[in-house]
Fold this protein.
Amino acid sequence: MEVVRMSAALGCEIRGIDLRLPLTDAQIAGIKAAFLEHGVLVVRGQQLDEAGFIRFSRYIGEEESYKSTLSAYLRPGYPQIQVLSNMVEDGKPLGVKDAGQYWHTDRSYVPAPAWASVLYSLRIPHDASGKPLGDTVFSNCVMALEALPASERERLSKLSAWHEYVFRFSKANDSLPGLAHPVIIRHPLSGKEILYVNAGFTHRINELPEAEGKALLDSLYAHVANERFLYRHSWKVGDVLIWDNYSTQHLASSDYGPDQPRMMWRTVVKGFPIE
Ligand code: SIN
């Protein structure tokens, strides 16, 4: 098994494994260590059924059941797998369309946000020249924090921000009332400090007047999206990719149309309370 770095900022590829077969303890330990170090990990060229995909997710941790969270377009018989797709068959959508087309970390609006999310690509859109579309872009939020001046980090360390699902989707959801997290959190496993605000789900800075908090958040969102912190994943069919929802943020590109089919399976691995 070989670990190959994907960009200066984050991301690695694991080569030399076939996920149709159970991995050895040493391989699992190697994958977990590489994932924690690089924030995004991809294994290319896989051919998985639902059980194989769930087995891979479980190497990282126990998956959440979408039934207890936001249930739509689940694989029949597999409440852990959600289908993301713009495809329609007999007038019925096959998956969640347009998922994640804004900077966010998954489920930052709950006390123990998802630790990891896993995607398996089944259909990837292309342009007329064959270039893949629908890239997913990731930002390293440990690096983004480290790049801020010490005085700014000191200021941010005293602030907290409100995260809420309703912010993006403008519909009340009583089971997801929102909550505050520190603007700088510590990674529950690596102990590293992370800039933890995202344009998708963060509303406001609790300790600042609204306009001042909004200006600060907008400047932090622009900072996180700076090219030097990014890895852009250009998908191929058969990619299995995991990202760390604490140390990274991500954005799904919306550069393809309804006649350019995209389909992914997705699982979410349970997280830890943020402190
Ligand atoms: C997501 O944000 O979970 C979806 C990412 C993607 O489909 O590229």
